[in-house]
Design a protein that fits this description.
The protein contains ten helices and 16 strands. By secondary structure, the chain is an alpha/beta fold.
Length: 364
Amino acid sequence: MTDTTTASPAAAAPHLLVTGGAGFIGGAVVEAALARGWRVRVLDSLRSDVHGGLPAADPRIQFLVGDVTDPGVVAHALAGIDVVCHQAAKVGLGVDFSDAPDYVHSNEVGTAVLLAGMATAGIDRLVLASSMVVYGEGSYRGSAGFTRPGPRLAADLDAGVFDPLDPATGQPLEPLLVGEDDPLDPRNVYASSKLGQEYLATSWSRSTGGRAVALRYHNVYGPGMPQNTPYAGVASLFRSALQRGEAPTVFEDGRQRRDFVHVRDIASANLAAVDWTEPAPAGTFRAFNVGSGTVHTIGDMATALSVAANGPAPVVTGEYRLGDVRHITASSQRLRDELGWEPSMSFEAGMLEFATAPLRAAVL
Ligand code: UD1
């Protein structure tokens, strides 16, 4: 006779709350969690400046419409939850500095309210959507070794000098992959609000014994990406231009380096992070970069999309946006080593899919 009392039970599927679960990335996390057989609740404010229409009702999830900055809403949303995956945020670069209070309110106050609610409810597992923007400019090597250059000067950019230069030699610095322990240098309000969220999560884990993961996303793209908001990333802008029959407009010389990571790989990283929080020691906070591991230029990406969409070739304008960083590419080795995560989508296959994939409904 087999003694079943000593057999270890299969780990119970967690009941997951995804804040921002109606969004581009949150929606992909919800899909991935459902595919794993997890119970999923969504809390989303469905802000009209982000959501062009209401999501179709999905009987597989419990959908709560409400704002994460509202303590009453949050208390209701947290009832019976094991893990929170916090994706709700105001993203992108915004319109101008008058956006600052909204970034701080949505992202930092929202996270503080959520964490206070979790502390009250005794929920001790958190996965937080963070961003590569917390690093500012990428890491480089120059004649003096490792360096983190400051913001580029308008005079250099006007003269077509886009790469940060080695002050000793005047030659371009060599871009490196950014590691999680490299210096943090948030350079805009969005970036500082993302880092603020990380610091809040760190304080929460210390004071409550919670276990938190921050995932620093690289440039995320894929089906369902927002299109015409002031908060859209470059992949979406190029994709939208091609859909209108126009050429993608590439700034600087097109050689800016980024890492484009597919939204389904971001979702799988979130699930791996949820798994990781379960056995993690109490009071842990750990940050992980999430990138595909392959470096591409903005010009490469524009060309790949134009070819895949059979559209006009990109136009490189030499214009610039003051405040853009030149190169930022991550090492995601920590995520691979500690969480066993692997990206599944190559740049080529991902861009081929994205060139014709549906985007989110336009915001009117
Ligand atoms: C983007 C995100 C940021 C995210 C980060 C992750 C936005 C606005 N920014 O920052 O929130 O955390 O990735 O690493 O979503 N460009 C063009 N043509 C255009 C628009 C942009 O060539 O029409 C160029 C820019 O000059 C820049 C590059 O594309 O060099 C990337 O731009 P963008 O996607 O806006 O911002 P990131 O700095 O990568």
